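Example record

The entry below shows one chain as it appears in the dataset: sequence first, then structure tokens.
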Amino acid sequence: MDLPGVDPSVPSAARIYDYLLGGKDHFASDREAAAAVLESVPNARTNARANRAFLSRAVRALVDAGVRQFLDIGAGLPTQENVHQVAQRAEPSSRVVYVDNDPVVLVHARALLADNPGTVVAPADIRDPAALLHHSEVQGHLDFTQPVGVLLLAILHFIPDDKEAAHIVAELRRPLVSGSHVAISHGHPGELTGDLAEKGRELYGRTRQGAVVGRTRADMAAWLEGLELLDPGIVPIQGWRPEDDFDPIPDLAEPGVFGMVARVP
């Protein structure tokens, strides 16, 4: 399928993630990039699947907390257990806006959601949070006088500048009323050696996203200052309210992903 703005020779983080999850919407360049990722980070496939499971648990927790509106930024390619499916199964009135700027993601998402009036897709870029929040699909579908769940899952590590990442979170928090929640998952480097870390940065530097960076718990905690961090805090995603069949919690020396959910008081 030929899409305007899509160069199949340039890998995309969304399509690499789709490949790691066992999906089918990727090009040869994405598969080659994913193989290189797995060389540097052998547990990358496990982390991708654990991140998807964290998404489901976080969305259910937000529905239980009374949230009926979701803004999923950097949504990626549709797969099993998408946000709208999890939320609407628990509460059919739930409304979801998926945001992405990858043309392949947008085409697939619109096709999947054509018959779901509670869910829309907004083409927007997280790097311009003000424009994102004012996008017509966002403003037309969500009521910001009521609680909203903002999902920033595996997206902020593609914003390498710390000040820019903090600014993005602050801007996205700004319109949220009491009872809203912010859910974040973000990669951490563990004890990845300098050579391997540089290889990972160089690899993602060739993707549409252009960069990737790991951060510490302290970095992430600063984004949530003033919010009420839900138990169990900032933890490996496998350990965030695990279910009976949860994955083992990984050694923090390995590259992994932290997860967290916080409430607007």
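Notes for this example: The CA atoms of residues 75 and 98 lie 6 Å apart. The chain has a mean pLDDT of 88.
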